[in-house]
């Protein structure tokens, strides 16, 4: 699959409520849901920023987002998003062995 096919434009809402429309790269499974106009209630998906945003979000940062049906997916920096839960949902929770100190 060509990476360009997994690139979508999102609505990013910054802490002041201002909006911009950067590009993110998403997983193929999420692209299928995007094409089906799925609506998420929570920010449970994770994408990679492909722009440096005016509000300071840098290129390459993993960001949680939610699908919004036929509208652009949303990244809302004002939302009380639990980043750790978003990453665990997308990539799986680390095992206890990985978290233990030597």
Structure description:
The protein is built from 3 helices and 7 strands; from the N terminus they run ββββαβββαα. By secondary structure, the chain is α+β, with helices and mostly antiparallel strands. The protein has one domain. The longest helix is centred in the C-terminal third of the chain and has 9 residues, at 83-91. 19% of the residues are buried. The mean pLDDT is 82.
- Following the backbone from N to C, one meets helices and strands in this order, namely EEEEHEEEHH
Distance from first to last alpha carbon? 40 Å
Low-confidence stretches: none
Total of domains: 1
Estimate the strand proportion: 25-35%
The percent range for helix content is 10-25%
Mean pLDDT level: 82
Number of helices: 3
Q: How are the strands of the biggest sheet laid out side by side?
A: 1-4-5-6-7-2-3
Q: How many β-strand runs?
A: 7
- How many strands, what sense, and barrel or not for the largest sheet? 7 strands, mixed
Radius of gyration over all CA atoms, rounded:
14 Å
Shape: globular
Quaternary state reads: single chain
Which structural class do the helices and strands define? alpha+beta
Q: Which helices and strands appear, and what pairs or packs with what?
A:
Layout: E1 7-9, E2 11-13, E3 19-20, E4 23-25, H1 28-35, E5 45-49, E6 62-68, E7 71-76, H2 83-91, H3 96-99
Parallel strand pairs: 2-7
Antiparallel strand pairs: 1-4, 2-3, 4-5, 5-6, 6-7
Compact overview of the structure:
With 102 residues, the chain is an alpha+beta fold. It has one domain (3-92).
Key phrases:
3 helices; alpha+beta; 102 residues; 28% strand; seven-stranded mixed sheet; globular
């Amino acid at each position: 699959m060509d990476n360009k096919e997994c690139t979508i434009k999102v609505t990013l809402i910054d802490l002041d409520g201002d909006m911009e429309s950067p590009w993110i790269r998403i997983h193929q499974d999420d692209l299928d849901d995007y094409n089906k106009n799925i609506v998420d209630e929570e920010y449970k998906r994770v994408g990679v920023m492909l722009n440096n945003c005016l509000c300071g979000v840098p290129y390459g940062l993993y960001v949680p987002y939610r699908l919004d049906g036929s509208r652009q997916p949303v990244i809302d920096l004002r939302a009380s998003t639990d980043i750790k839960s978003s990453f665990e949902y997308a990539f799986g929770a680390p095992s206890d062995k990985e978290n233990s100190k030597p």
